[in-house]
C-alpha cells in the first residue's frame, strides 16, 4: 500500500440475514482527500462506514489500514440513556482524560459554555459539535462523518459545514463523509461516491453530476444537466436492466 | 445470641456494596431482563447441586456463568427480539428449576426460601464467600470502569477509540452472573434484580455523574438491607421482600424529593 493511502477496501461485500447490503465495493482514502458518500436510504452507506471504521467485518473482500491511520468518528446520531447522568465534559473524557484538552476542543467547536451541561439536553447542532469535539481529541488524520448535519436546523447546517471545512484545513486530515445534502457536498468535496449497494458511479463532483446513475438515484431536481440512464434498480436495489435510451 | 442477625446483616451488605456500580451498569445497559434470566436459572443450579450432592452454592455459580455465556452466544443470532428470547429462556429456566427441585429424591423443598430468600439462615462461611466475591467483582469493576462506561455510553465510539467492546460486554455479563449467584440466598431468585436496579434508579434522581450514581446506589442498597432487616424484626416480615420494599420506598422518596 502506498504511503499516501490511509485505508483501502477491495471487493467488499456484506449481507444481513441473506439480504445483500454491499456488493463488490472498492474504495481507497488518501491523505487530505475529502470523499463524500451519497446514496438513497438503504443504500448501505452506514454499513460501508462501519466497515471502514472496523465496526463490521465484511463477508468478502479485504480492508487494509495504514499503520499511521488515526480515525476520528462522528456517528449519525447519539442516543444516551436518560438514566445515565453524564455531562458534556465527561463525555469527551472517554477520548481524552485531560479535562483542559476537552475544554479546548469544545472551545474550538464553539460550545465551551456547555461543558457542564447534561448531554441529553443538547440540541441537534450542539450534539453534533460535541461529537466533533470528541473526534478532534483523537488528533485524527481521517475524520469519518456519518451525516454530520442530520437533525441540525437549516440555519445551523452551513455553520457546521464551514466548521468542518476549517477543522480539516487545520488538521490536514482526510474526510470520509456520508451526506444527503448535495449542494454543499458538491461544493467542498474532492471525490463523490454514489452508492446503491454497489458503487453506481464515482469521481469528481463535476463528473458525478453528469453521470446517468446519479440522476437515476436523485432525480432531475438535484442534477445540473439532463441525463441518460444506463440501468435501473428493482425494490432491492439490484440492477435489473442495462439501458441505452434516455427517459428522464 | 444475635449472631444470625449479624451474619444476615453482613451478607446483605456484601451484595449491597456491589449493587451500586453493577446495578447502575445494568440500568444503563438495559440488562434488567437479562439479570432476571440469570436469577431464574439459579434455581436450576440448586437442583443440580442437590442432585449431584455437590455444593449447591458452587453449582449456582457454575450454572449462572454458563447461562451468561449461552446468552452471549445467542445474542444477535436469532430473528426474535431480545426481550422475547430472554422471556422464553427466563421462564423456561424457572420452570425447569422448579420441576427439577421437586424431582430431587428426598431433597428439601423449601421452595419459599429459594424463591424469596433465606438470609437468616446464612452461615459464616457463606458470608465470607459472599464478601470475597463481592470485593473481587468491585475490584474488577473499578479497574475496568472507564472502558466499561465508555462502552455503555456509546458502543461504536468506544470501539473506534480502541475499547474491545465484545470483551467488555462478556465481562459485564459474567460479573452480573456472579453477583446474581451470591444474591440468591439473600433475596431469592424472584427478587434479585430488584436489589440491583431499584437503588440505582433511586440514585439517578439526584446524581450528576455516573460515579455519583454508582456510589449513592450502593449507599441506598445498604440502607435498604438495614431497613429490611429492622422492619422484618419489628413486624415479623419475610426479610427478602422487606428489603426490596425498603428499596422501593427509598426510590419513591428520592423521586419525590428530587
Please name the defining characteristics of this protein:
heterodimer, A: 248 residues, alpha/beta, six-stranded mixed β-sheet, 8 helices, 27% strand, globular, B: 258 residues, mainly alpha, ABC transporter involved in vitamin B12 uptake, BtuC
Can you tell me about this structure?
The complex is a heterodimer of chains A (248) and B (258). Chain A has 248 residues and is α/β, with parallel strands linked by helices. Chain A has a domain at 73-139. In chain A, 30% of the residues lie in helices and 27% in strands. Chain A has a six-stranded mixed sheet with strand order 5-6-7-3-8-9, with helices on both faces. Chain A is globular. The model of chain A is unreliable at 223-229 and 242-248 (pLDDT under 50). With 258 residues, chain B is mainly alpha-helical. Chain B has one domain (3-257): ABC transporter involved in vitamin B12 uptake, BtuC, CATH 1.10.3470. The radius of gyration of chain B is 18 Å and the shape is globular. The model of chain B has no long low-confidence stretch (mean pLDDT 90). The interface between A and B is medium-sized, with 23 and 25 residues.
Amino acid at each position: 500500500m502506498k504511503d499516501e493511502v490511509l485505508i483501502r477496501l477491495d471487493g467488499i461485500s456484506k449481507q444481513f440475514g441473506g439480504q445483500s447490503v454491499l456488493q463488490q465495493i472498492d474504495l481507497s482514502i488518501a491523505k487530505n482527500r475529502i470523499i463524500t458518500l451519497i446514496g438513497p436510504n438503504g443504500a448501505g452507506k452506514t454499513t460501508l462506514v462501519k466497515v471502514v471504521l472496523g465496526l463490521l467485518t465484511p463477508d468478502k473482500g479485504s480492508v487494509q489500514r495504514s499503520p499511521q491511520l488515526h480515525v476520528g468518528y462522528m456517528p449519525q446520531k447519539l442516543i444516551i440513556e436518560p438514566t445515565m447522568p453524564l455531562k458534556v465534559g465527561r463525555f469527551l473524557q472517554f477520548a481524552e482524560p485531560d479535562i483542559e484538552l476537552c475544554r479546548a476542543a469544545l472551545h474550538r467547536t464553539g460550545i465551551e459554555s456547555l461543558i457542564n451541561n447534561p448531554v441529553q439536553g443538547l440540541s441537534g447542532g450542539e450534539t453534533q459539535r460535541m461529537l466533533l469535539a470528541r473526534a478532534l481529541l483523537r488528533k485524527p488524520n481521517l475524520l469519518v462523518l456519518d451525516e454530520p448535519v442530520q437533525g441540525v436546523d437549516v440555519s445551523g447546517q452551513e455553520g457546521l459545514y464551514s466548521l468542518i471545512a476549517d477543522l480539516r484545513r487545520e488538521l490536514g486530515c482526510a474526510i470520509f463523509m456520508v451526506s444527503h445534502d448535495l449542494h454543499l457536498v458538491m461544493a467542498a468535496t474532492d471525490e463523490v461516491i454514489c452508492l446503491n449497494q454497489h458503487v453506481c458511479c464515482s469521481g469528481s463532483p463535476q463528473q458525478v453530476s453528469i453521470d446517468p446513475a446519479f440522476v437515476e438515484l436523485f432525480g432531475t431536481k438535484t442534477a445540473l444537466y439532463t441525463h441518460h440512464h444506463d440501468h435501473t434498480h428493482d425494490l432491492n436495489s439490484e440492477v435489473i436492466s442495462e439501458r441505452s435510451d434516455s427517459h428522464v | 445470641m444475635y449472631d444470625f442477625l449479624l451474619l444476615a446483616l453482613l451478607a446483605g451488605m456484601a451484595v449491597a456494596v456491589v449493587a451500586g456500580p453493577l446495578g447502575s451498569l445494568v440500568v444503563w445497559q438495559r440488562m434488567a431482563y437479562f439479570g432476571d434470566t440469570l436469577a431464574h436459572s439459579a434455581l436450576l443450579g440448586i437442583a443440580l447441586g442437590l442432585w449431584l450432592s455437590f455444593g449447591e452454592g458452587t453449582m449456582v455459580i457454575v450454572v449462572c456463568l454458563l447461562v451468561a455465556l449461552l446468552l452471549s452466544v445467542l445474542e444477535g443470532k436469532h430473528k426474535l427480539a431480545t426481550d422475547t428470547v430472554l422471556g422464553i429462556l427466563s421462564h423456561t429456566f424457572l420452570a425447569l428449576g422448579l420441576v427439577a427441585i421437586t424431582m430431587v429424591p428426598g431433597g428439601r423443598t423449601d421452595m419459599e426460601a429459594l424463591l424469596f430468600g433465606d438470609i437468616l439462615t446464612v452461615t459464616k462461611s457463606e458470608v465470607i464467600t459472599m464478601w470475597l466475591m463481592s470485593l473481587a467483582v468491585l475490584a474488577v469493576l473499578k479497574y475496568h470502569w472507564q472502558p466499561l462506561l465508555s462502552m455503555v455510553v456509546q458502543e461504536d465510539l468506544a470501539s473506534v477509540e480502541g475499547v474491545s467492546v465484545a470483551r467488555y460486554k462478556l465481562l459485564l455479563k459474567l460479573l452480573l452472573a456472579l453477583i446474581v449467584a451470591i444474591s440468591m440466598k439473600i433475596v431469592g431468585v424472584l427478587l434479585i434484580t430488584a436489589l440491583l436496579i431499584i437503588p440505582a434508579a433511586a440514585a439517578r434522581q439526584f446524581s450528576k455523574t455516573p460515579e455519583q450514581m454508582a456510589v449513592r446506589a450502593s449507599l441506598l442498597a445498604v440502607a435498604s438491607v438495614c431497613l429490611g432487616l429492622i422492619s422484618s424484626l419489628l413486624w415479623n416480615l419475610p426479610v427478602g421482600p422487606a428489603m426490596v420494599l425498603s428499596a422501593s420506598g427509598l426510590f419513591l422518596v428520592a423521586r419525590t424529593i428530587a
